[in-house]
Amino acid sequence: MSDQSIFGLRFGSNAELNPTGGELGAFITRAKRPGTLKPLGSAFAPFRELLHGLAAFGGKWQQDARQGDMRERMFYGVVGHSQFAHPALMLAVEHYEYHFHALAALDFRKPAAFIKSAEEEMERLNPKKKDDAARLERFRAMVEERKRAIGALNKRKAALVEELRLIALYIRDNLVRIRKRCEASIVILVERQLSRKEEQRLVEDIREHLGLQFQERGQGGEMGGKGPRIAEQDAAVLTSEVSALLRADVFALTALYEAIHEHAGKAVRAIDLLTAEAAAKKNRTMEDELDLFARMEGALASLVTEFRFEMSPAAVRSETAHGRFLLEKREELLNGLFAVLKRERRARSDRRRDEDRRRFTDPNFKGVDLRRGKERRSEKSRRT
Fold this sequence. Notes:
By secondary structure, the chain is mostly helical. It has a domain at 42-106 and 172-344. 68% of the residues lie in helices and 0% in strands. The chain has helices at residues 21-30, 40-43, 45-63, 70-82, 87-104, 109-123, 130-195, 197-219, 227-280, 286-305, 323-343. α6 (109-123) runs antiparallel to α7. The model is unreliable at 62-68, 218-226 and 345-384 (pLDDT under 50).
């Protein structure tokens, strides 16, 4: 059973191992990153700030879509749509840290050392002597107690290892979905840029706006015979400006999607390598286990500590009296782009990857032909 949405429900988790909210919060406050002196709370602070910023932007956007600067609108629009900045990612990483520290805290050495020392002492005792026989019984009882403790530790170790593995796979699978969403979004942005439909529509809006304004001012006798020439000059300036803004904005949005795609991909590749290494070597010592999951911890923690996402939208440079109109059209363009991205037009199955689709290169294809009879051409009528 699985949830295919990005960072949806996580099934198969061991509820007995999971901490309460208070326990997890206290752990994050006091624990330190493995191999460092930096507390987890401060290490994860940048990602928490990203989550808070996204939530604040969402509330502001709900109240008034015109509030906030252009950078916020573009940056949080992409980060929110990609679903990378998701509370479930932060929670999964924190759970991994909690369980990894629990695994590292398992102490097999003390009971193993006691058993070894006790067995050496038992070899020196003579069971025929009354005092030695009594000591042997006590040692045997203590050895059995330590063996039971080791058995319990092994069970807990196995449960923690499985939980860590499942958390890593949960994060990995969701990162793959994020990468697919970024890929689809990049394709949409590039296609719309190449089609130039948005640019042409905006140019028409500019000319319509200037035409209406010219009529109003012309009727008042303000422009005289210079009106058409001035309007054409303004149209040329605004058209050039809006074309440059459109290209710059699409480039900035695409670059941010690419940065998220690559950042997630780095973690996916690391998780895949470590998962393959774990599968190749089944019988690992405790030291090998800790080393493997410590490297996995580094890959997962880097997701929320080493992201470098930037957004630098182009500035409006127009010195005409139509700057506000240009800003409104830019906002309209961005709203339209994000509306298209959120519709996920590529959510439908890709026919190029459909194993059952009809392949013209496969003469032996035996699948169902979905065309109706009158639409199928006979061999005689087929063009040569």
